[in-house]
Write a structure and sequence with these properties.
alpha+beta; Adenine-n6-DNA-methyltransferase TaqI, Chain A, domain 2; Helix Hairpins; 3 domains; 4-stranded antiparallel β-sheet; Restrct_endonuc_typeI_TRD_sf; EC 3.1.21.-; Type-I_RS_S_subunit; DNA binding
Length: 341
């Protein structure tokens, strides 16, 4: 079977030349920047929508939703190969009509389309829920760290007033280094070598030996240490270490008598203002001295713990939703591979 009934709208539209959609229309861009981007089909579910901007419109007796899934998976690369051009690629209706399609009967198309649509709706719901949780946490952090929202103790009494201190007053700090890369006996050992792009991960890409550790400025950090990326593409990123390992010179380890998750949350909340204050146009580096000079609030330890527990619960809910979302996306991908082989 081939694609018939393809129309092409014109790039320049006036009132008399507007093409209005019909339910079940499938549209594919007629021009774009890359071949793979242009090879994207969409099904129009509403009639009477003005279609412009240089589109190929497929009017077919097939189920438009199914056809969209089919073209975006089984035929995407074939469509991309049809597109021609350099700075701007073009896709013509005459080319699309050359596609060979292997479609099930209309009844099966409808079943598949309905099932995949239900999966997509669930993905959309989980995506929105995850985004709302992220927005909610951002708003709550704003209230907490501006002290608009205060917690109370077990007896319902107010906690003591917060005291602001420079971070240097309440912590110890150190950075690491990199063993000589020319020494093979310094590498491929058993010590995880944490780089600034690997903060908070459960493993590292590179490992060093005890000999490499002893003969370099690399320093060991513990599980639960707060790690801060000072420079590079990840400047300003921070995480609580999940592993014992050695850090390089781009990472600052921060140890304080504050609740670690409370401090992590505060520095994460202040991340953008820190970067804007100390990095010009995203260029430059942070330093240990800059981080030490930051003013941080110090509530009582009990209030810190309450704040940390509250934010941790939000994080766990966010992670749970994100995991469900990722699992559903993988499930859908597996279905598509099975259906459109």
């Amino acid at each position: 079977t081939g694609l018939e009934g393809i129309e092409r709208t014109q790039g320049c539209l006036c009132v008399t030349s507007v093409v209005l959609s019909e339910i079940n229309d499938v549209i594919i861009p007629a021009s774009g920047e890359t071949q793979i981007d242009i090879a994207t089909a969409s099904c129009v579910q509403v009639s009477g929508v003005a279609l412009g901007g240089d589109l190929n419109i497929i009017k077919s007796q097939e189920n438009g939703v199914f056809l969209t899934y089919y073209l975006n998976n089984q035929k995407k690369l074939d469509i991309a190969k049809l597109a021609q051009g350099n700075s701007v690629v073009h896709l013509y209706s005459s080319q699309l009509k050359q596609l060979d399609l292997n479609l099930p009967d209309k009844k099966e198309q409808t079943k598949i389309a309905n099932f995949l649509t239900a999966v997509d709706e669930k993905i959309t719901q989980l995506t929105q829920k995850t985004e709302l949780l992220a927005q909610y946490k951002k708003g709550v952090m704003q209230q907490i760290f501006s002290q608009e929202l205060r917690f109370k103790d077990e007896d319902g009494r107010e906690f003591p007033e917060w005291v602001e201190k420079e971070l240097r007053e309440i912590g110890s700090f150190f950075s690491g280094g990199t063993p000589l890369t020319t020494r093979k006996d310094f590498y491929d050992g058993e010590i995880p070598f944490i780089k600034s792009g690997e903060l908070g991960l459960n493993s590292t890409a590179q490992y060093i030996t005890e000999l490499g550790l002893k003969n370099s400025s690399a320093k060991m950090v513990n599980i639960g240490d707060l790690l801060y990326a000072l420079y590079g593409a990840t400047s300003g990123e921070l995480a609580i270490s999940k592993i014992e390992g050695a850090i390089n010179q781009a990472i600052l380890c921060i140890r304080t008598n504050l609740n670690t998750y409370f401090l992590y949350s505060y520095l994460l909340f202040k991340k953008q203002s820190i970067l804007q204050s100390y990095l010009q146009g995203g260029q430059g580096n942070l330093s240990a001295e800059i981080i030490k000079s930051l003013d941080v609030p110090t509530p009582s330890l009990k209030e810190q713990t309450k704040i940390a527990n509250f934010l941790t619960a939000l994080d766990e809910k966010f992670t749970q939703n994100q995991s469900q979302l990722n699992a559903l996306k993988q499930y859908k991908q597996g279905l598509l591979q099975q259906m459109f082989v």
